[in-house]
Amino acid sequence: MDKKKLIAIFHCFSLLFTLPIISITTASSPPSPSIPAVFAFGDSTIDPGNNNGLTGLSAIFTANHPPYGKDLPTQKPTGRFSNGKLVTDFLVSNFGIKEFLPPYLDPTLSEADLASGVSFASAGAGIENGTNTAFRGVVSTARQLEYFDEAMQRIERYVGKDRCEELVRDSLFVFSTGFNDVLYNQALGLLFNNQIFHDSSSSSNDASNYQGILVQTLGSYIQKLYSRGARKFGVAGLAPVGCLPLVVTAGSILAPSLKHILERVCVEPLNLYSQAYNTKLQAFLIALQHSLPASKIAYFNAYDPLLDMGLKKVFEDVVERGCWRWVLFAFRV
Predict the structure, then answer these.
(1) End-to-end Cα distance, the chain
(2) How many domains does the chain have?
(3) pTM for the complete prediction?
(4) Is 323 exposed, middle or buried (0-12, 13-18, 19+ CB in 10 A)?
(5) Tens digit of pLDDT for each residue in 205-218?
(6) Is-contact 66 313, C-beta < 8 A?
(7) Which residues have C-beta within 8 Å of that of residue 206, sequence separation ≥ 6?
């Protein structure tokens, strides 16, 4: 994936310092806001290695093995679910903070590294506490916020209370989560029960209600960080869940349409679930920003850019290169 294209897509986060309302853009010459640190919460999309110590069945949520990391300068896996950098790495690099956003659970993490931002994200995690917790070691988003509180205690001892409060106020807090909730708790069940290819108003209503719960829960995490002094937030929407390799493969087998079997197309009814969630999320974030004085919340559209860049072809290349392991996948960035 073109590095410049990826950075351009994520310039929308820069706008949260200049725009009073939620917006989406891919500006070519972004402003250079004064961001002292980035703190990230979520799943494999922004996990730089917090899961490296997982073993047994939980090891399916690790990326500290080849072929991950082959495009990094060291050509070695770091725990990132990518051949190179994660989007949060591009963010901190673009803001001039540091080259990579490190994992919070790295035992070698220094106080200086911590004070300039870390990622608490854990591959396999979801918005709901119960998502994938059967896999021991996966860190729920709620637990990630507890880690943040621990981190703030360390930072306060390092820089002092006043500087710590200033750091939290000026830092960017990024969320990229929800995909695993929709995939494991909703999409796969509908797919393997063969419900997704049949019009079902009850299934649609259940899906809508569940998406509403996810959005509200995610909002509660933002409110908790706001109560701790955070003011700047970036929240990513869902990618097309119907284009995940596992879903495409299952759809090819289970779909009644010959087109699915022969062409390995995305399962569009499941993509509608991603779209519906994203619509709810955007509306909720706009209302949430209005209810939190001095807050700035930017929504990142992760759905359309991936499709525009040929997501199906990207996924096919990933599978051919052996970079996708079970449900997880890596992008060339």
Answers:
(1) 5
(2) 1
(3) 0.84
(4) buried
(5) 778 899 999 999 99
(6) no
(7) none
